Amino acid sequence: MSLKKGIPIYSIDRFKRLLNKEKPYEVEVFDANRHFKVQYPHRHDFYEVLFLTAGSGNHIIDNNQYKITPPCIFFLSPGQAHKLELSQDIAGYIFLFTADFYLLNKNNQNILLEFPFFFNIKHGNDPLILKDEEDLRFLTSLFIKGCKQMEGSNDRHEIINSLLDLILNYCHGLYPKAFQTEEKSKGHVLVKRFRQLIEEKYQENPSINQYADWLNVTPNHLTQVVKSVSGQTSMDIIKQRNILEIKRLLIYTDLTASEIAQQLNYNDQSYFTKFFKKSTGLTPSQFRKKSLKST
């Protein structure tokens, strides 16, 4: 389905039941009868943990398609565009939360960026496959406890926060050890903060100097760290993000190339077309036609 105004960005309130409207989190059963009705694809301004225990389908995240093979867990960071294609027997749980909620009373305000599954430096979103029955039972029990806590009318922030903390840290422990050590290094955290800022600011087209200023580092230090950690330059990552957004809008919306250029603050339509073609080998109109044929 094409969207006329662009890919919608939803706040967490859109996914919460009336009973929980004032809470910065939501934990509930996820199945074909789930209560929230949203357009796909869409983006969030919050984090999502999608734990699937049965069913099948595909999960398209930032134009990459992942096969759903339960039991598995998908982790989504703010700003990512995603689309779900699910079987009728899909089953599992969903945990939605804002950064402010999770970081409440945390001394380390970068802790979300230290998890390998949020703002992944490799731009991947492969699900965590649960291979051990004990892991499956334990995580299922945590999500069930979270769902039960949501049923109460009292303030259960601390309990929900503790359950979320346990879920994220336990899943972190299931990742390969190489991920566990890399993601906590200062360089990796800086690159993730850089990527997080790009998600927030890309429509403004800031300079490298501006990004460095926001991150409280010098432009040269930012460039060196990004190159060391990712193998790419800072400008490469910014360009990749812009190309990704252009592709999203060409595939999922009815916006014209000139409207997309205007939305992303490209004042020169000719430069916009050349920039996209240099990166993809196709003009915006050629890319849209090709993507339509493949769907």
Describe the model:
Helix content is 45%, strand content 17%. The protein has 295 residues and is an alpha+beta fold. It folds into two domains: 9-182, Jelly Rolls (Sandwich); 186-293, Orthogonal Bundle (Arc Repressor Mutant, subunit A). A five-stranded mixed sheet has the order 1-3-8-5-6, with no helix packed on it. Strand 5 and strand 6 form a beta hairpin. The longest helix is centred in the last third of the chain and has 19 residues, at 234-252.
Percent helix among the residues? 40-55%
The protein's oligomeric status is single chain
Structural class per helix/strand content?
alpha+beta
Number of strands: 10
Low-confidence sequence ranges: none
Look up the CATH topology of the largest domain: Jelly Rolls
Shape: globular
End-to-end Cα distance, whole Å, is 11 Å
Task: Write a compact overview of the structure shown.
With 295 residues, the protein is of the alpha+beta class.
Please describe the structure with a list of short key phrases separated by commas or semicolons.
Arc Repressor Mutant, subunit A, Jelly Rolls, alpha+beta, 5-stranded antiparallel sheet, globular, 45% helix, 5-stranded mixed sheet
Question: How is the secondary structure organized here?
Answer:
Layout: E1 9-10, E2 25-31, E3 42-44, E4 47-54, E5 57-61, E6 64-68, E7 72-76, E8 81-86, E9 91-97, H1 99-103, H2 111-114, E10 128-129, H3 133-150, H4 157-174, H5 177-182, H6 186-201, H7 208-214, H8 219-230, H9 234-252, H10 257-263, H11 269-280, H12 284-293
Parallel strand pairs: 1-3
Antiparallel strand pairs: 2-9, 3-8, 4-7, 4-9, 5-6, 5-8, 7-10
Helix pairs in contact: 3-4, 6-8, 9-12
